[in-house]
Design brief:
406 residues, mainly alpha
């Protein structure tokens, strides 16, 4: 991770702009996250079938997936051009160089989304290690390019250019992994019936609502702070959130690795084995997060001071963020497991809590002069009221029902 190096090469204003750009990734994530878990589940389902028309089913599924992601990339391009440019209008008018950076960033996000279905396909086929390895390799090469451009003093322009080149590298590596699955011809075949498309859209709509809700609960706050705090404060908040989200991703790796396997267990009605896997995975995830979070709070500022900048938020806020992400991990992993049962009703409560959080935070900052800590407390309360206890309890109820019917 180049975070310490970036901190030394960019001034607070540039760093604030960089984190605002990085924050716009959430728009692509909102569009994709509705489909990614659904795609993985459908691929796992069709691979578990042993029918004569299995090849036709896979052809239709892959064709639908590819078409959907092309449409998503077009939608993303329009959103970034219209709404993204409006949000960044105060920054874009500063100089021509910022406009060039913004155009490159739009191309990067749009192009990456257009082929992201390849990652979902690899995960659906159970090639989680190959998928993660490919993403890791592209990240390493992208970081090397970023470092080179920073040394050349290209600063923000160098970062976005390296990002774009990293996307080209990722696409090449993903296609190389796809070749090993012997489905390249199926992906290139345009004679699919598209019947599965409607099913994917229906289920992805609910998961899309979940993504929007997560945006309202977390990422919206970042954009809200961008309107009320200086770029220097936004940079500190961005560094802190980036570290916590990195820790969250690392902690969730076990469920990401085994979700396709869990889906196949549920389809084959191996419920006992699936529940046992889930409990073990959840314990491992919480343990990783608690240990990693404790290290981050205690030594995070010390490490950043060594590289020359103290960019984390104050310790009091760090503790509240630590608790918030722990809550998010617990109910997030639970709902992810529930999707293997084709249970998606949690999207309603997610949306309600997202609306509550975003509205309360906005009104609080406008009319009651809420500070950053007050807003984070609202985030915590919005999840404790329902999601935190409801969805782990739903899994426990399903487990009791299974034990009763054995």
């Amino acid at each position: 991770m180049l975070l310490p190096i970036i901190l030394n090469f960019l001034n607070p204003t540039e760093l604030g702009i960089w984190y605002i750009l990085m924050g716009l990734n959430i728009i692509a994530n909102i569009l994709e996250c509705g489909f990614q878990p659904v795609v993985i589940r459908y691929i796992a389902y069709y691979l578990s079938l042993k029918e004569e028309n299995e090849k036709e089913n896979i052809l239709n599924l892959l064709g639908s997936i590819k078409q959907i992601y092309k449409n998503l990339s077009k939608i993303l391009f329009i959103i970034l051009i219209v709404f993204g440019s409006f949000y960044l209008k105060d920054i874009l008018i500063q100089n021509f160089k910022i406009k060039i950076i913004w155009i490159i960033y739009i191309i990067t996000l749009t192009y990456q989304l257009s082929f992201s279905y390849l990652i979902s396909i690899l995960n659906g086929y159970g090639k989680i290690a190959s998928s993660n390895k490919t993403i890791a390799y592209s990240k390493i090469l992208s970081n090397m390019l970023m470092l080179s451009f920073l040394i050349l003093r290209l600063n923000l322009l160098g970062l976005v250019c390296a990002n774009l080149l990293g996307v080209f590298i990722l696409r090449y590596l993903l296609y190389r992994e796809i070749k090993y699955l012997n489905i390249t011809k199926l992906l290139e075949n345009k004679n699919y019936k598209g019947k599965i498309c409607k099913k994917l859209y229906r289920e992805a709509f609910k998961m899309g609502i979940v993504s929007i809700s997560q945006f309202l609960n977390t990422k919206y706050i970042f954009f809200l702070f961008g309107r009320y705090f200086s770029l220097e404060i936004i940079a500190r908040y961005g560094v802190t959130i980036q570290l916590f989200e990195l820790l969250t991703k690392l902690s969730r790796l076990p469920i990401d690795i085994y979700i396709a396997k869990l889906s196949q267990m549920i389809y084959k009605e191996k419920y006992k084995k699936a529940f046992d896997y889930y409990k073990f995975i959840l314990v491992i995830i919480i343990f990783i997060y608690i240990v990693g979070g404790s290290i981050l709070i205690k030594y995070g500022n010390i490490v950043l001071e060594i590289v020359g900048k103290n960019q984390l938020l104050e310790t009091k806020i760090l503790f509240f963020l630590y608790f918030y992400y722990l809550i998010e991990i617990i109910y997030g992993v639970s709902t992810y497991f529930l999707t293997t049962f084709k249970f998606l009703d949690f999207y309603k409560s997610f949306f309600i809590s997202g609306i509550f959080c975003s509205v309360a935070a906005t009104l609080g900052m406008i009319y009651f002069e809420f500070d950053m800590l007050d807003v984070i407390k609202i985030q915590i309360i919005s999840q404790l009221l329902y999601n935190f206890w409801k969805w782990p309890l739903e899994i426990y109820r399903r487990y009791l029902k299974y034990e009763k019917n054995r």
